[in-house]
Amino acid sequence: MTLDLMSQGAQRLEKHKRKQEAEVNSGGRVASFSRIHQPGELDLVHGRILYLEDVNVSFDGFKAINNLSLDIGVGELRCIIGPNGAGKTIMMDIITGKTKPDSGQVFFGSTINLLRHNEPEIAQMGIGRKFQKPTVFEYLSVFENLEISFPRGRSVFGALVFKRDEEVINKVHEVANMIFLGDQLDKQAELLSHGQKQWLEIGMLLMQDPDLLMLDEPVAGMSVGERQQTAELLRSIIKDRSVIVIEHDMQFVAQIADKVTVLHQGKILAEGSIDNVKNDPKVIEVYLGH
Fold first, then answer.
1. In this structure, are strands 62-73 and 112-113 parallel, antiparallel, or unpaired?
2. Which residue has the higher pLDDT, 289 or 166?
3. DSSP characters for 42-87?
4. Contacts of 3 (CB under 8 A, 6+ apart)
5. How far apart are CA 148 and CA 259, in angstroms?
6. What is the pTM of this model?
7. Can you tell me the distance from the alpha carbon of 102 to that of 275, in angstroms, rounded to the nearest whole number?
8. For residue 286, how many other CB atoms are within 10 A of its CB?
9. DSSP 99
């Protein structure tokens, strides 16, 4: 065998190994344009940060999610609306690894199969979730709530060696100003208004620089002024990430959404601009008309 043939064979073998490694880590989905990505690296080459295909979940015979297919674009702010029991919360549970579907696919970027990972792993990959009720550390100050959310201090080892250095302080001030709490850093969290606590929890997630942020009814219980400020906040943070908002307040949805998805009985009933959705006869019948 000539040296040229041996060299060509070695190159083909190496290419085959790389392809196998990509398939193992991605569930068979390989990034296009011959881009080679490291395991766990977020690949946005297709312009989609999240992709669900034919997802199904049943509980004791009840179909909570029914052949749901959904994709979220990079830098998009998507609002998910629908009646109670439509499957909105279960959908978020699936994305974050809290609930495993009976069937279907869920990908973060083009290659990361979320169904192969648990909740902590998914959070570390760059998916942040805020529940409806704000969860902050009431007896810590605003500064301390943001500080402990800094990625370096979240692991056991990181907490042991964590130092309040210039990088941490600058990040806390940056996020605090973003969430309208720049002048409240020394205030104890329990003394904040309900709306301010909502902002603080969003800030705690922003400290981790997530690529995808999911918010469950972020303006529930807020004043009119706080809702307006929250709309401004959400429109500003999509410059660096994608955001999914579950919301019932249609006026707020109209202010912020790039696109609206209506869920009903675990599947998509309608999707499009806020005007198209509001005027859809099916949406009016099952959701807006009640």
1. unpaired
2. 166
3. ---TTSEEEEEEEEEEEETTEEEEEEEEEEEETT-EEEEE--TTSS
4. none
5. 34
6. 0.81
7. 34
8. 18
9. S
Structure letter (DSSP) for residue 141: B
Cα separation, 261 vs 265, in Å, equals 13
Q: Do the bridges between strand 48-59 and strand 103-108 make them parallel or antiparallel, or are there none, so unpaired?
A: antiparallel
For residue 133, the one-letter residue type is K
Residue 232: closest CA among 218, 246, 212, 221: 218
**φ, ψ for residue 284, nearest 5 deg:** -60, -40
Alpha carbon distance 110, 45 (integer Å): 7
Q: Any residues with CB less than 8 A from the CB of 270 and at least 6 apart, and which?
A: 261, 262, 276, 277, 280, 282, 283
| pLDDT given for residue 42 in this prediction | 82
Strands 62-73 and 48-59: antiparallel
pLDDT at 11 over 90: no
> What distance in Å separates the CA atoms of residue 210 and residue 129, rounded to the nearest whole number?
9
The 10s digit of each residue's pLDDT in 208-251 is 999 999 999 999 889 999 999 999 999 998 888 999 999 988 99
The two three-digit tokens of residue 139, written as one number: 């007896």
List the one residue out of 49, 225, 194, 65 whose CA is nearest residue 132: 194
Contact, 273 vs 235, CB < 8 A?
Answer: no
Cα 137–chain centre separation: 22
Q: How far apart are CA 172 and CA 31, in angstroms?
A: 36
Asked if residue 9 has pLDDT above 50, the reply is no
The per-type count for the chain, helices as H runs and strands as E runs, is 11, 10
